[in-house]
Amino acid sequence: MARIVMKFGGTSVADLDRIRNVAAHVKREVDAGHQVAVVVSAMAGQTNHLVEMTRAASPMHDAREYDAIVASGEQVTSGLLAIVLQSMGVDARSWQGWQIPVKTDNAHGAARIQNINGDLLIERFGIGQVAVIAGFQGIGPDNRIATLGRGGSDTSAVAVAAAVKADRCDIYTDVDGVYTTDPRIEPAARRLARISFEEMLEMASLGAKVLQVRSVELAMAHNVRTFVRSSFEAPDAPGMDDFDNPPGTLICDEDEIVEQQNVTGIAYARDEAQISLRRVRDRPGISAAIFGPLAEAGINVDMIVQNVSSDGQFTDMTFTVPNGDVEKSVATLDAVRDEIGYDAVQSDTGLAKVSVIGVGMRSHAGVAATAFKALADKGINIRAITTSEIKISILIDGPYCELAVRTLHSVYGLDKP
Ligand code: ASP
Ligand code: MG
Questions:
Q1: Ligand of minimum distance to the alpha carbon of 110
Q2: 310-313, long-range: CB within 8 Å, 24+ apart, which pairs?
Q3: Does residue 39 have its Cβ closer than 6 Å to ligand 1?
Q4: pLDDT, tens digit, 9 for 90 and up, residues 343-396
Q5: Which of 23, 182, 327, 372 is 20 to 30 A (C-alpha) from 116?
């Protein structure tokens, strides 16, 4: 017997038929003798609809009331799933965030979970009852419903799994796992059997939108083995009842991954822009003078490359921001031009960032050189490079994004089993 948290996203509970399908997945695990808590999202599109109504009521609405409204989508699906499970003879009960309770901070609309008391849930496991939990919501110190930010039910699920010390948190979604790269770009992309928390964090923050980034951080912090699998696979399809080895991708501690490849996956982000400050007067504090005002303006700066100034007087500073933030960035830098002291600011939009990710890089030399050579062979120009222990990110012109992804995917042999 194991204890599992099963999470189902919006497309998995999109209508009553889909909810019945979810119930069949849940019943399979219950019949196998496992203790089960289920975390559900709102029906697909429902949260968007609620957000729109909130805005229509008043663009300057109170965040507490926003939360009261948008949290309701999950309340509906938790109740519906409990009813369907009961009708199938499974003992089930719905739980809202405040009932457990899932305690959050006071940041309404983007609250963080501070604590979950798992005692009541564990008590119900003891009598064989399935807890059907509304994701995305908790209760703040002001005793009011608080929501966790869009996509937050992944985080709810991982947090519940940590609180009840679940053996695994199964995230059921509309894809059947995490792939070596985006299969829409590279059809030869393969599903990974396992990926480490750290690698997944890089993949998730780079647009592999399988999981909310925060849920992966939480899973890493609490070592919650998190399993990405498909709810669109028939509940009784071959292998689905194989508890130890079902179809999907396990996100886990590096130590659980026996055969580590150098490179695990290729991620990409489009709509990047490059901004370069030319002939910046080089002196201590220059980076703070540039990036302080940008941070205050709420601009998310990503790659930063600074040249070594040969004469100790002038340097070039290049960095990337999302396309949509270029004008604001340039205006912000213009406003502090005298304090910084530079000759010109140049910007280019429509770029792409392609990243090679793998914990195996830590112990293998030459991974970066392989990427540079492969891109050169295809005539792809590199604008900027940044690296971390487990990632190499390369900035290129947007139209080359797909070619670069496919080239890197094959040069590291990711298309071969
Ligand atoms: N229903 C919420 C949203 O659409 C939470 C979630 O689905 O994870 O953002
Ligand atoms: Mg989601």
A1: 1
A2: 312/282, 313/281, 313/282
A3: no
A4: 999 999 999 999 999 999 988 889 999 999 999 999 999 999 999 999 999 999
A5: 23
